[in-house]
Amino acid sequence: MAVTMRLMSLIVASCGIVSFVFGVIAENKKPASGTKILGKDVVICKYPSDPTVVLGYLSLGFLIVTTVAGYLSLFYPYKGKSIPQRALFRSGSFAVFFNIAVFTSGLAAALLLWPVITEQIHQARNVHHNLNASCPTAKTGLLGGGAFLSLDSSLFWLVCLMLADNAREDYFDETGKDGVGEQGQVFIDDFNTGLPAKGSV
User: Fold this and answer.
1) Do residues 34 and 135 touch, judged by C-beta distance below 8 A?
2) Distance of alpha carbon 12 from alpha carbon 75, whole angstroms
């Protein structure tokens, strides 16, 4: 199956949506706090079984797929024709949206990864020798914010892909490297040189 811009845009959009859904579900499933159990000179925090960590990592994984696919889709040689990167970044709009997409993807990854790692630490280190210790969970709202930024980043990658398509068309129009005009002219010249001149017979 040939790689096309439509296929790449579908991959970027679908993975962004899946990342958003997993992130929102992870935020909704996250418990507000753990249950505090007093032991002998210790406090044991018992947390309910929830899929927050797994869903958070799934959301992060699909965000990575979206980012990688979005980046590669901009520079892929569609139909065997590639253009230099400087031709793409010559467009001010492309450069701006490219930087926004990269920044948004990085921020979304940070907001997704931070609460997931924090939640794992709370669940692993659930025994406290301080009797006044509480049983906190990851900060509320980070997973949801990361999910929305993940969806936003996929939209920005799609905008970059659209601008890259316009830049490719402009580049091939300017340079004439679309394989039609120049080759056609060569064929006409060759045909004309092969004809005998008038009056030479």
Assistant:
1) yes
2) 14
Reduced to 3 states (helix: H, G, I; strand: E, B; else coil), residue 36 is strand
What CA–CA distance (Å, rounded) separates 47 from 134? Answer: 12
pLDDT tens-place string over residues 57-100? 999 999 999 999 999 999 988 888 888 888 888 888 999 999 99
Task: Residue 4: name the closest of 58, 77, 61, 71 by CA.
Answer: 77
- Residue 78 amino acid letter: Y
- Cα distance from N-terminal residue to C-terminal residue, the chain: 55
Is 87 within 8 Å of 74 (Cβ atoms)? no
Two structure tokens written together for 147: 């999910």
Alpha carbon separation from 2 to 14, 101, 151, 173 (Å, rounded) = 19, 26, 26, 23
SS3 at position 177: coil
State the angle between helix axes of 5-29 and 142-175 in degrees (0 to 180), rounded to the nearest 10: 170
The model's pTM? 0.80
Q: Residue 43: which of 123, 122, 135, 127 has the closest Cα? A: 127
Chain length of the chain: 201
DSSP 40: S
